[in-house]
What does this fold into?
Amino acid sequence: MQLPQFLQDFLKKGPAGAKKGLDAVATTSERGIWALKWSFIMLAITSALQVIVFFFSGSTALLADTIHNVADAATAIPLWIAFRYTNRAPTKRFTYGYGRIEDLAGVIILLIILASGIVAGYESIQRFYHPEPVKYLWAVAAASVVGFIGNEAVAIFRIKVGKEIGSAALIADGYHARTDGIASLSVLLGVIGIWLGFPLADPIIGLIISFVIMKIVWRSGKDIFTRLLDGVDPAVVDEVRASAAKVPGVLGVDRVRLRWLGHKLNAEVDVAVADTMNVGQAHELGEQVVAQLRQDVQYLTTALVHTDAASAAAHQHA
It folds into this structure.
């Protein structure tokens, strides 16, 4: 789905996009906070409209969708806190800084989504045993369309900014909002079912939405916990290796270690250099490798390059 032109122009505003190097942390954090603020406002408005319609209609499917949208809006709070802490300087106790808080915020988001799925599923099952008539079908249908539009706009917003700043938590939250939009649109199917004389369509759709929520938890959970365990995309490792290898004077790239700290990527690279190089020359070459890595690798903020004489590197590799 493409956003209208005025919304596309809006996405280009706000804090600048992601930069490379050490100055990227504050800039990307501010952009993440900016995205969270506006997506929270959009989802709050969407949820408020749906709450009003549910109060008068009594639709279980709409209730499940509303609970999900409220939970989605609430996920902005732990992410906002995480982005704020990311800007803090490292300390003697937390020598790597506070970037890992963003990953912990992702875990909190998963728990919020999980809780919303359980509540929505419980309410849907209750309606099977205690059915109630759904009123104002036209309003429920309108609320489902509003929910879809609001969530899809937020999804595009969060995913775009999340990819710009390299935030797995914000990207996961964006895909969560996209699935919310599909769930909102499915409420319309419940309305059609009731209109055709099948009242159980409403709790059935509510139950389906609950299963969709659980699927989101599983998919997003894999990404979040991969980062918590210092997992990275193998393609990024290959990118780092290729970038270091093309620096003149580098005879080989041995060990490459990467880790995400929130939306910051840290690298440790061992390179082999000529045996004839003195300490000063090896150090200068290491600085060239760092500069090349920052130029080629997106989201990289810190790189530690260790140089070994080619003969020693070959012995260690063996």
